[in-house]
Design a protein that fits this description.
Number of strands: 37
Strand order of the largest sheet: 3-2-1-4-11-12
Shape: globular
Strand content: 25-35%
Largest sheet: 6 strands, mixed
Number of helices: 19
Structural class: alpha+beta
Radius of gyration: 27 Å
Amino acid sequence: MRNIRIGIDVGGTHTKAVAIDNATNQIVGKGSCKTTHDDKQGVAAGVVKAFQKCVADNNIKPEEVVFVAHSTTQATNALIEGDVAKVGVIGLGGGGLGGWLVKKQTTIQSIDLGNGKKIEVISAYIKLKEFSEKKAEEVIDDLIKQGAQVIVASKAFGVDDMTEEKVISDICQRRGILSTAASEITKLYGLAIRTQTAVINASILPKMLETANSTEQSVRQAGITVPLMIMRGDGGVMEVTEMKKRPILTMLSGPAASVIGALMYLRASNGIYFEVGGTTTNIGVIKNGRPAVDYTILGGHRTYVNSLDVRVLGVAGGSMVRANKDGIVDVGPRSAHIADLEYAAFTDPKELDGAELYFVQPKPNDPSDYVAIRCKSGKCITITNTCAANALKLLADDDFAKGSYEASYKAVKLLADYIGKTVEETANQILTTSGNKIIPVIEELIAKYKVERDQIVLVGAGGGAGVLLAYTGNMMKFKYQIPENAEVISSIGVALAMVREMVERTIPNPTVEDIAKIKREAKDRAVRSGAVPDTVEVFLEIDETTQKVTAIAMGSTEVKTTDLSKKVDDAEALEISKETFAADTTDIKVAYSNGNTFVVTGKNKTHDNVRIIDNKGFVKVQRADGKVVKTPFGDIEDVLKKLWHDTSNYSSEVRINPDMYVIVGGRVIDYSGLSTVEQVIGLAKTELIDLDEAAEIGIVAAKNGMY
C-alpha cells in the first residue's frame, strides 16, 4: 500500500493540492480550484474542495494518506480585513515603582493595523500579592462586561514562572472563554512586545478556530484519520490543535510553503530563493539547508513571532512598463491583471497588426505613463516582463510563461519605435530595469545572513520564474536553477514540510545544562505539535551580544521508512559536490565517508572548501573553509579542542569562533553558533552518552568571518 502525503496551498487566485508518494517523493496527483475568498467559510472552503478533488480524481484511498497539511491566508486576511476580536489584557506584577512599570508595559493601546482597521484592547492589572482565583474571575468578568471577547494574561517574568497566567487560562477554559497566555506564545523577555504579540494572537483566535474546525471536520468526513497539519510562517507545520492556541504562527505561511518546496530540489544548501508571480516576487535566503527567519512586523508593530525573512517586491512576470520618449522609466509595481489588461505574449499575433501604443493610469493614484496597446479590434493589452522575455526568446518551450514570440516582438517593437531603440535593446532594458530592483535586495540578504558568495545558487519558483530568474542570475554571475513543477512548488512545500518548533530564552553565560534543557524543551514542543520523537533534530543558535539562546527542533510526522531506498555512494557524492564548487577548485576528494554521510573537500585559493552530503544526495552543509577529522568517540574532547583552536579566526580584534558538526552514521549534529568549545564538548558527550568509546565519528570544523 502506498503512503501518500497531501499538501494544499492557498494562493491569491487558485488553491492547489498535490499528492506525493512518501517513498519516492514523486507527485501522484493534483487538484485545483479557485480560491474561495467570498465563501462564508472563507478560504477554508477552497482547501476542502482542492483536497477532495485531489483524492477523488487520483483514486487515493483514505487509508493511504499519512499526512495532510495546508497553508493558510486566514490569519493574514483577518488582520488585513479587520476581522478581529476585542481583547482584554490582564497584566500581572508587583506594586510600587516596579509594578507601575509592569502595568504600563501591559496596558496595550488599540493596535493600528495600518489599513484603517485596528484591534481594540482594554486592560486591567492585578498585583501578585493580591492574586487569587476569585480576584481573577472578578477581573475577567469586568473585562467581558466592557466587551472583551478574548482574554490575554501577561505576567512580568512569566517566562520563568507562568503560574498566574496558567490559572487565568484555566478559568477561561472552564467558562468557555478564549484566552492566550503571553508566556506560551514566546519565552523571550521583553514584556511589552510579548504582551503585544499575545494580543495579536488573541484577536484572531475566534476567526481561526471557526475555519480550523470547519476544515478539520471536512477532512474527517473524507475518512482521513491522520492529524491535520497547518503550515507555519517559519517553514514548519503544526497540528491543528496547536494552531488553535497559536494561530499567529501561521502568518506568511504561503511564502514559507514555496521555500520548503524549493528545498526539495536544491542539492546545494546555500541559495537565494525567488518566487515570481504575476504581481510580486518573494525573495528569501536558504543557508545551511534551512530558510532564514526573522521576527514578523505586523502593521508596523514588532512581534516575537518568527516567520521566513521574505522580501516582497512589486516587480514580477506581469509587471507593466512605464516609458516616455527618453526610454524606459520603470517596470511595475502595477501588474497587467490589476490593470485588467492581457499580456501581449498571450495574444494572437494577428491582433497586433495595425495596433497602436498609448499610455494609461491603471489606478487613480498611479502615474499616467504605463504602456498599453490598443488593437484594431478595440481590445487593449499591455507589455510586461513576460513579453520582453518572449521577445528575446529566453524561455524554454515547456516554461509556464512561454507565449508567442511573434506577438511579443510586435508589441515590444511598438514601444521600441516610440523610444528610438531596437526591439532587443528595449526588451533588454525592460528586464535590466527589473533586475536592478531585485539585485539590491539579494545583496542586502547576502550581507545580513553572511552567505558566502561562491556558495550561492539562485532557485526560482512560481509561474514567472523563467522570466526573471535567469536574467538576474546572469546579471549577478550566479548559478541558477528552476525546479521541476515550479508552478505548484508551494503545494509541494506544504506536503513535504516538517514539524518545526522554536524555543528562545535570554540566558546570560549559558551552561551546558542550560543549553541541554532548552534543546529538550524544543524537542518536547515539536513532539506535542505532531513530530515522531526519533525523527526530531535540534539546531542551536547563541547570540552573545543579546545573550539569547535559540533552539530549533525539526521532525517528521511519521517514522521514515524510506532510508533503505536508493542511496548515493562515494562516487555519486563526489559528483554531486563538484556541481557546488567554483571552476578553479582543485584536489576534490571524499575526505570522510561512513556509507551514510560523506564529507568532500576541495582546494580553492588558499583554503579548503567542505561539503557534507547525506545518503539521499543532498548537501547538508557547504562551507568555504573547513577541516574534517575521523576519530574514535573516546578522543572527541581532544579532537574538538584542537579543531576549535585551528579553525578560530584571529584576523580581527575579536576572535571569531568556528562552527562544529559531529557526524554519527546518518546523523549530522549541528553545534554551530555555540560560544565555547566546552559547550560543544559537554553537549556532544551528553547527547552521545550511549556511544561506545571505540565508535568512529567524523568532526567537521568550519571557519567563520573570512568572506
